[in-house]
Design a protein that fits this description.
6 helices; alpha+beta; 54% helix; elongated; seven-stranded mixed beta sheet
Length: 244
C-alpha cells in the first residue's frame, strides 16, 4: 500500500512506478505549500499596508477627491525615522505625516506641480471669527419670513375647518362644561331644599307622636302630607319608650 493510499487519497499509480509516485507527491506538496504561503502573504500584505491615504486636488477647477490608496510606514535609518510609502503610484514615498484625519487615515493635497501636501480640516468657527463673519443675517431672515408668508397666503388656501376648527371645538367644549356645571348646581340646590323639607316634616311627625303619647289632643287641621317613612319613626319611638 502506497503513502497516498494510507492518506486516503487513492491509488495514483499510473504506470510511472516509484518515480511517478514521487513526482506526484512532490507536486501536491508544492501546491499545498504555495497555497499556505499565498494566504500568509495576503494576510501580511493586508496587515502591513494598513494606512489609508486620500488624495485631493483640483478636478475641473473644483477641489475634489482624486483617489484613495493604501500605504505603510517604512523605517529609515537607525535613528527612529520613518517614511510613508504609498502603493499608488508605485514607488511614491512621502515624509512622515503629522496631520491625521482618523485612525490610520491621512489626507493629502496634490498641488499643480505634483507635490503631495499633508493637510486636514481647519476650525471653521475660529476662521469665521477671525474673519469677522456674521453667522445670522437679520435682514435676510426677515426677508425669508416675508417671502414664506406671501407664498402661503397666495398659493396655500386653507379650508374653513383647517383655519377655525380648533377655535370652534374649544368654544363647544367650554359651553358643554358650563352647561354641565349649571345643571349639576341646580340639581344640588333642589336636592338640598327637598332634604330640608323632609327633615321639617319628620320633626313635625315626631312632635305629634310625643303629643299622642302624653294624651294631648291633635287638632283636625294638623294633617300630614307627603311621603314620610313613618314606620321606622314609630319603631324608634317605641324602642325609646321601652328603654326609658
Amino acid at each position: 500500500m502506497g503513502i497516498l493510499e494510507e492518506l486516503g487519497v487513492g491509488n495514483f499509480n499510473f504506470g510511472f512506478g516509484v518515480i511517478g509516485n514521487t513526482l506526484l507527491i512532490a507536486f501536491f506538496a508544492i501546491l499545498f505549500a504555495g497555497i499556505v504561503w499565498g494566504v500568509i502573504y495576503l494576510i501580511y500584505r493586508r496587515l502591513s499596508w494598513n494606512q489609508t491615504i486620500k488624495v485631493y486636488g483640483l478636478i475641473g477647477n473644483r477641489p475634489s477627491l482624486k483617489f484613495v490608496t493604501t500605504g505603510k510606514f517604512v523605517p529609515l535609518g537607525k535613528a527612529g525615522d520613518r517614511v510613508l510609502k504609498a502603493r499608488k503610484p508605485k514607488g511614491k514615498t512621502l515624509p512622515n505625516p503629522t496631520l491625521q484625519m482618523g485612525k490610520h487615515e491621512w489626507w493629502y493635497w496634490e498641488r499643480l506641480d505634483g507635490e503631495w501636501i499633508n493637510w486636514t480640516l481647519g476650525d471653521l468657527d475660529k476662521q469665521f471669527k477671525e474673519a469677522g463673519a456674521v453667522y445670522v443675517n437679520a435682514d435676510m431672515r426677515l426677508e425669508r419670513l416675508a417671502i414664506e408668508k406671501n407664498l402661503r397666503d397666495r398659493l396655500i388656501k386653507e379650508k374653513f375647518w383647517d383655519k377655525y376648527g380648533t377655535i370652534i371645538i374649544n368654544v363647544i367644549f367650554i359651553l358643554l362644561i358650563t352647561i354641565s356645571m349649571v345643571i349639576i348646581t341646580y340639581q344640588m340646590v333642589k336636592f338640598g331644599k327637598s332634604l330640608s323639607g323632609a327633615m321639617d316634616k319628620a320633626d313635625s311627625i315626631l312632635g305629634k307622636i310625643d303629643a299622642m303619647e302624653r294624651g294631648t289632643p291633635i287638632r283636625p287641621t294638623d294633617t300630614i302630607t307627603g311621603f314620610i317613612p313613618i314606620l321606622p319613626l314609630l319603631f324608634w319611638k317605641k324602642s325609646k319608650h321601652l328603654n326609658s
